[in-house]
């Protein structure tokens, strides 16, 4: 039957994982194992994993709005990993280490410069408008 084939392949996967963990020197994992993804919905997988690993096994499901099903765990994890990696790359792009207080001061200085530039631009525009109105009025008298 199909279930026998699936059980054999899942058992094989778990045994390969167990062999790799032993090869890497992880004899005992005190926290146990966590199964994620759509496979956790298959009946008997949790018990099979406990039998193969001889350890505690639990399932993990995302707890985000719209993705409360286990088959979305991998996608959510990949997205979170990509976001974290992107933030790390942005932080390392600024080669000088910045303390939290210094970063806040830098942000304050930038916002002050931007607001000052905005004020200058507004004053220039108002000055240009005032100048052009004044020129029009003088133009009426001195044509």
From TrEMBL:
Residues 107-130 have a biased composition (Basic and acidic residues). Residues 87-130 are annotated as: Disordered. InterPro entries: ATPase_NBD, FtsA/MreB. GO terms for cellular component: cell division site; cytoplasmic side of plasma membrane. Gene3D superfamilies: 3.30.420.40. GO terms for biological process: cell division. This is Cell division protein FtsA. It comes from marine sediment metagenome. The lineage of its organism: unclassified sequences, metagenomes, ecological metagenomes.
